[in-house]
Write a structure and sequence with these properties.
Elements lengths: L2 H28 L1 H4 L1 H23 L1 H30 L4 H28 L7 H31 L6 H24 L5 H24 L12 H14 L8 H20 L7 H4 L5 H7 L7
Length: 303
């Protein structure tokens, strides 16, 4: 690299801890570190990563490669948790949908680890260390999840009553911008369409753009989410999942059996009253409760 390229590269790199420090201070002053704990931890981890990786990059490049790989693994774990945290904040009014999303995120994390393990074991490249290959694969999986989360918010924000000025939306937007650029760079690198220097410059500029997005959302005031913004469609989703989640009580079959008995009695009243023997229908029919009918029929109560 020439001197001008080095200056641009180091400038973009030095912007990372500067913007991250500003974001961390703003979150502390506004109390947002309590709402978005994993995002705050992610920002602090990135500051510490720069403090460790940059000196090793200057004095020992081979050591910085392994240090950078370990820091990438930490960023992958925290980045996955940040997306889950933003998801929980978006679905805060819908408890059942939030629980379902938590289960899906756990399964996504498990599948991501399995894919990373299979790729690291099956790789045949002598230049790629297996555990480094696993970290890179897990990172790409997280990037895909981040892009999917942004697309989900862009498509369904109005159905969920989510304002695009909310902090959780800004967090997902910043990750989505960086993830799209990084995935495109990886594809270009794999196809030998882009050099290493250009890829590093674009990647750092994309991360600086994500930091600027986070800084703006951290600095701006997030609008309060009122009850009127909860629309009918997610409420139906919530109710449907609640009906599937909660099992029926033990006596829930009694009304059904009582209705069956009442219908049977109403059909038999007409021929009985026409017999002319002076016996009223109430005297000839023995009333039976729903529980007794179910017990004699051998039916097992629900629950």
């Amino acid at each position: 690299m020439n001197e001008r390229t080095n200056i641009v590269l180091y400038t973009l790199w030095f912007l990372h801890p500067v913007l991250e420090t500003v974001i961390a201070v703003l979150m502390l002053r506004r109390g947002q570190h309590r709402t978005f704990k994993y995002f705050f931890s992610y920002i602090v981890a990135q500051i510490l990563t720069f403090a460790v990786v940059f000196p090793t990059y200057l004095y020992n490049y081979s050591t910085s490669f392994y240090v950078s790989s370990i820091s990438t693994a930490i960023s992958v774990v925290l980045g996955f948790q940040v997306i889950h945290e933003a998801f929980l904040d978006i679905f805060r009014p819908f408890h059942t949908l939030r629980d379902l999303g938590t289960v899906l995120f756990r399964w996504a994390g498990l599948v991501m680890l399995l894919v990373a393990g299979v790729v690291s074991v099956s790789t045949n490249s002598s230049d790629a260390v297996p555990w480094v290959q696993a970290i890179m694969t897990a990172q790409r999986c997280v990037r895909i999840i981040q892009v999917g989360m942004v697309l989900f918010l862009l498509l369904f924000a109005r159905y969920l009553g989510v304002s695009r000025r909310q902090h959780s939306f800004g967090i997902c937007l910043g990750f989505g911008i960086f993830a799209i650029v990084e995935l495109a760079l990886n594809a270009s690198w794999a196809g030998y369409r882009l050099g290493e220097v250009a890829m590093n410059l674009i990647n750092m500029a994309a991360y600086d753009s994500a930091l600027l997005v986070w800084w703006w959302y951290t600095f701006a005031k997030s609008p309060a989410r009122d009850a009127g913004s909860i629309l009918l469609r997610p409420q139906r989703w919530e109710q449907s999942l609640s009906d599937l989640h909660h099992s029926l009580p033990e006596d829930s079959l009694i009304p059904m059996f009582e209705g069956m008995v009442d219908r049977a009695l109403s059909r038999t009243q007409a021929p009985i009253s026409g017999q002319g023997d002076g016996v009223t229908p109430d005297a000839t029919v023995v009333p039976t409760s729903g529980r007794g009918l179910a017990a004699r029929a051998g039916a097992k109560p629900a629950g």
